[in-house]
Design brief:
With about 725 residues, this protein is mainly β. It contains 13 helices and 45 strands. This is Tip attachment protein J domain-containing protein.
């Protein structure tokens, strides 16, 4: 029996012989066969006796009277082997209760941090959920220009940048509203750590990471749900037979929209609609429209005089847009429509519709018997429960009718408004999770990630550091257990293949229709004809960025495409959908540009320009000390350890005598030396650890021609009395 103890929420759970025999945790954080993922330590499913203590600590889940939703929560747990915590701060998952026993599983290591990147409901947090509100600012020319400078970005970790987005740009008179925020990966990383409650190895010592930059690929816009909550579709309900009628001219009447209860009508939930008018809650561009079906006439004999009707939209009492109006000298039935497209409204603005009828002296006199009417007693009935039905019901003064054509519509447009408050998190890739961002950084750097057993700290070693650590290799020669025989160890295994790699293993940037296929990608090649021809190391969630031909020295992130390339034809553009981008901020690629400070100036007013020295980010450059080309920089610089693993691959499953201290101090980024095997290895996983028996370790050889000259470090000793129990199997 092993000497295990399991604590949950600080209290000791009851274990029996069956529990002890199944508590064999697997430790992993460096499975190079799965470069697309981050691994965590775990135990198999373990059964615990249904004792009174366990019932209490596990919320009575086995009695059918569970409390506080314990089966659906992750409980903080700690596994102790041989007096040493080998899985402290683990997560206990309660899977069920069968045969009088609880069935649980422990997960730990990196899982603790991954859990911190999730919401309380278990769903992954988005990058856009990070709190970067301390950087909020108004989207104005002054603020944009101030944040364009090279120095501002270096000091604050974000700013504005120039990109070729598909529209014509003059670098001496740039429209500031064509510029969007860019945010350093460092700023995002530091905020993510802060909110997750973890600390990490300082990645800013790695120049590539320190210069990673996330430019806006697609400008932030209001979401459909956000817009719908501010949208209005109002109608006019009236008692049967009591239409709006006038027999002489009348001044502007605020139209009494009074129905928003049922579809197709809509009452805004995030704006106020009352007293027949709409009060704006959100700065933005709006589309406004109002329509009324009107009957108007004057006596045809004698043929003199005319009548007119007008529907108009007012904002704060002032007419905006185009009114709907008509002037006639006889009976006419028509629909008048007033519109105001893409009008910028401020919070507190009041929008209403007015209706007006006038008499006109023409043909030698004033009109005879002028008449105006709104409401036609169409067969649309508003039932007592608010439903609108199309029913041929005759006149009934107890019914209410509604004419579908009479509507007042307000729609918030998706476009981000000038003067709006820029929240940086909104301008990060909209659907990207925090975990996807983290994995991308780790894949770029080919990082080994290991969460400290005893503190909320993440240790990160890039691929180049792992190879450099050969000089610190631990000597596990004496720990190797080569026992054989009926009561010895299971047969050892050696495979001459590792993972699901191919002859060509590609690291790919995400495909974007606006970028040449394969641009920025690279591959690790293996000389083994038995392998598949092509495979993927990983596909990064960002796309590559190519240099602009139109703006020399700058990158292009195409959001627009000119419909007709002929420069003699007035420019019209189709909107494109570029994918998220990751680029590098340079130290010395600087440009002096001119930015217009009065972009909303009246016609024929000269542009005022401010000069700014700004940096132009880059993606791939043979002239730079490093870039984001997988072929030129990323794979040669950071993926050397995988190359050393895959050349003449040897994947071994050997048994080693490991103490609890070995497990507590296990660092997957430090290779081991094993003299009986004659090579240096990386530990990929420690399977089902027990403190009183040899344990299977998956190790992969580092090819001797691809590693630096080693110098053995500490860890060569082995003391049998560190084990608890006399036998190994």
């Amino acid at each position: 029996m092993t000497d295990n103890q399991l604590y949950v929420e600080g209290e000791l759970l009851d274990l029996d012989d069956a529990s002890h025999e199944s508590f064999y945790p697997t430790f992993q954080a460096n499975d190079r066969s799965k470069p697309e993922s981050i691994q965590s330590s775990f135990t198999p499913e373990v059964s615990l006796p249904g004792s009174q203590r366990n019932h209490r600590l596990l919320g009575q889940a086995g009695t059918g009277q569970e409390t506080a939703g314990t089966p659906y929560r992750r409980l903080q747990a700690s596994l102790v082997c041989g007096g040493i915590e080998v899985l402290p701060f683990a997560i206990l998952i309660l899977k069920g209760y069968r045969g009088g026993r609880y069935h649980v599983q422990l997960v730990g290591g990196n899982k603790r941090w991954i859990e911190a990147l999730n919401r309380p409901d278990g769903k992954p947090k988005l990058l856009s959920e990070l709190d970067l509100s301390r950087y909020n600012h108004e989207w104005t020319p002054a603020n944009i220009i101030a944040r364009l400078s090279y120095d501002y970005f270096e000091q604050h970790g974000y700013g504005y940048e120039v990109y070729d987005r598909g529209k014509e740009v003059d670098l001496d008179t740039i429209d500031p509203y064509s510029l969007y925020p860019s945010i350093s990966a460092r700023l995002v990383w530091e905020q993510l750590l802060l909110e997750s409650g973890f600390a990490a190895t300082d990645l800013t010592t790695e120049p590539i990471f320190n210069q990673l930059n996330i430019p806006t690929a697609k400008p932030y816009s209001f979401s459909e749900d956000f817009r719908e909550a501010r949208g209005l579709v109002a109608g006019w309900r009236y008692q049967d037979g009591r239409m709006f009628r006038r027999y002489s001219e009348f001044g502007p009447v605020v139209w009494f929209w009074n129905y928003v209860d049922q579809a197709p009508y809509q009452n805004p939930t995030e704006a106020d609609f009352s007293n027949h008018q709409y009060t704006v809650s959100t700065l933005g561009f709006y589309s406004l429209s109002a329509s009324l079906e009107v009957v108007l006439s004057c006596a045809p004999s004698p043929a003199r005089g005319e009548v007119s009707a007008k529907v108009a939209i007012q904002v704060n009492g002032n007419q905006v847009g185009t009114p709907g109006e008509i002037r006639v000298g006889n009976y006419t039935k028509t629909t008048l429509v007033a519109k105001a497209e893409r009008i910028l409204l401020q919070p507190g603005d009041v929008v209403r519709v007015i209706f007006q009828g006038d008499e006109w002296q023409t043909f030698g006199g004033w009109p005879t018997n002028p008449f105006w009417q709104v409401g036609t007693s169409r067969p649309f009935i508003v039932m007592s429960d608010g439903r609108i039905v199309d029913a041929p019901i005759p006149y009934n003064p107890n019914l209410f009718r509604i004419d579908i054509v009479n509507q007042f519509r307000i729609e918030l447009l998706a476009e981000w408004p000038r003067g709006g408050i820029i929240s940086l998190s909104d301008w990060l890739p909209a659907e990207m999770t925090q975990l996807e961002f983290v994995k991308c950084i780790f894949q770029l750097l080919n990082a080994t990630v290991q969460t400290d057993l005893y503190s909320p700290t993440i240790y990160i070693s890039t691929g180049e550091r792992v190879l450099a650590n050969v000089g610190r290799a631990l000597d596990w020669s004496a720990k190797l257990d080569r026992s054989t025989g009926a009561e010895g160890l299971p047969e050892r295994e050696t495979e001459y293949r590792f993972g699901d790699y191919a002859q060509r293993n590609e690291l790919r940037w995400k495909e974007d229709d606006t970028v040449a296929k394969g641009y920025g990608d690279g591959a690790i090649l293996i000389e083994d004809e038995s392998l598949p021809a092509v495979g993927a190391l990983a596909e990064l969630p960002f796309s590559a960025s190519q240099p602009s031909q139109a703006l020399g020295g700058f990158l292009k992130i195409l959001g627009y495409k000119r419909r007709d390339p002929n420069p003699a034809v007035a420019a019209e553009y189709d909107t494109l959908n570029p994918l998220p981008r990751l680029v590098l901020r340079p130290d010395n690629l600087l440009f002096n540009i001119g930015v217009v400070t009065n972009p909303d100036r009246p016609p024929n007013t000269p542009a005022q320009v401010t000069r700014v020295t700004t940096a132009a980010s880059y993606f791939a450059s043979a002239a730079a000390p490093f870039d984001l080309s997988a072929e030129r920089t990323i794979l040669p610089r950071f993926w050397g350890d995988l190359k050393a693993i895959l050349k003449g691959a040897r994947h071994l499953k050997e048994y080693f005598r490991l103490t609890p201290r070995d497990i507590a101090e296990l660092d997957f980024a430090i290779p081991i030396w094993c003299a009986p095997l004659g090579d240096y290895f990386l530990v990929s996983a420690v399977r089902e650890y027990s403190s009183n028996q040899s344990v299977q370790c998956e190790i992969v050889r580092l090819h001797p021609t691809l590693i630096p000259p080693p110098t053995l470090g500490t860890g060569q000793e082995f003391y049998s009395d560190e084990f608890f129990g006399p036998e190994f199997w």
